[in-house]
Amino acid sequence: MRPKRMDTPAPALPFAPAAPWLAPMAGFSDLAFRMLCRENGCAAAVTEMVSAKGLFFGSPGTSRLLDTCPEDAPLVAQIFGAEPDYAARAVFWLAGRGFRHFDFNAGCPVPKVAKSGAGAALLDDPDRLVAVARAMVLAASEARPGEKPLVGVKLRLGVKPPHMVCLDVGPRLAEAGVSWLTLHPRFASQGYSGRSDWSATAALVLAVDIPVMASGDLWTAQDAAACLEHTGAAGVMFARGALADPAIFARLRGLLEGRPLPPPTGPDMAALIRRHAALVRATDHSPRGLLKMRTAVPRYLKGLAGSRALRARMCGCRSWEDVELAAREAERLTAAEPHDPSDRKD
Ligand SMILES: Cc1cc2nc3c(=O)[nH]c(=O)nc-3n(C[C@H](O)[C@H](O)[C@H](O)COP(=O)(O)O)c2cc1C
């Protein structure tokens, strides 16, 4: 498979409990991983975040984040920035490359992003956030007239407690023409500490008349089913849960359809390792590909009893042959008890 621009119109975005998405994850949700997830029940995916300005002044690295192929659909391109003008220009640029759906990041707490007034910093400047979203909506409809391009916004609760900015700004974003919201219900100041506040997601669902996608602490298919039940969200986005088990999407579908899948076995994980490696090799010819597998394989092995030594060895793996050896050894391992939740931090 060769990364290329998308020339065919992308299918519409699904918003439904049994249509789980892959969340945007900088450094992880690349083309190979998106394809692996799609083959395992993922209904839609979001790119890693790209800087709206970086598209015009950026390195080749920025455009590499947007590598895709016709099978990588439906796909949402996520941008971050703080200026309506650049966000609109970015949408035009992306639409010219075949992208049809766009997401705006208003939740990233990383200081490098927030210091420029982007990401979660926009939750302290809701007027600007709404202006950026409005500019993106206008740009999307002008860039792809007649095609119903969709624009979403991904939010956190707010910058710091107690002010849940998302509940005030959500309805304003909907009024500005945004088609869906995603909420990771933690404050930016929390980083990834504490628990996601799914009650806040439920409140946002009630506050807006557009779909809300739930994110946050969806480590298993059971977590996602509980979150859907608790929040009334239109659907879920898996993030760290998918990094540990890319079949989590199929697990949720199975669970909701009343035919839950058995826990993953060594041979299941070996097959995932081999498929991930094949997809990385087909899409990324740089040394980065092998480095990515070095971190991915130990995550896949974590739930298997007796995998500790193999995991430690994989961190130092130097070749694709080493990856294959790890897959072969994984085949012999058995499923362990479910992860201890306190051991789940990324
Ligand atoms: C390594 C990593 C990278 C992330 N990158 C992005 C990103 O580029 N854009 C974004 O909106 N959220 C990003 N997120 C947040 C996730 O999309 C998600 O909202 C968050 O991890 C909560 O879900 P979880 O607890 O199920 O992992 C990232 C999260 C992680 C762990």
Give a description of the structure.
The chain folds into two domains: 21-256, TIM Barrel (Alpha-Beta Barrel), CATH 3.20.20; 266-335. The protein contains 15 helices and eleven strands. The chain has helices at 31-38, 54-57, 60-64, 84-96, 111-114, 126-143, 165-175, 198-207, 221-231, 240-244, 248-256, 266-283, 288-301, 308-314, 320-330; strands at residues 21-22, 44-46, 50-51, 75-80, 101-106, 150-156, 180-184, 212-214, 235-238, 304-305, 334-335. The strands form two sheets. It has an eight-stranded parallel beta barrel, surrounded by six helices. Strand 4 (75-80), helix 4 (84-96) and strand 5 (101-106) form a beta-alpha-beta unit. Helix 4 packs parallel to helix 6 and helix 13 packs parallel to helix 15. The two termini are 30 Å apart. The structure holds flavin mononucleotide (FMN). Flavin mononucleotide (FMN) binds next to helix 10.
Write a concise synopsis of the structure shown:
With 346 residues, this protein is of the alpha/beta class. It is built from 15 helices and eleven strands. It is globular and about 55 Å long.
Secondary structure blueprint with pairings:
Blueprint (H helix, E strand, L loop, with lengths): L20 E2 L8 H8 L5 E3 L3 E2 L2 H4 L2 H5 L10 E6 L3 H13 L4 E6 L4 H4 L11 H18 L6 E7 L8 H11 L4 E5 L13 H10 L4 E3 L6 H11 L3 E4 L1 H5 L3 H9 L9 H18 L4 H14 L2 E2 L2 H7 L5 H11 L3 E2 L11
Parallel strand pairs: 1-2, 1-9, 2-4, 3-4, 4-5, 5-6, 6-7, 7-8, 8-9
Antiparallel strand pairs: 10-11
Helix pairs in contact: 1-12, 4-6, 6-7, 7-8, 9-11, 12-13, 12-15, 13-14, 13-15
The chain binds flavin mononucleotide.
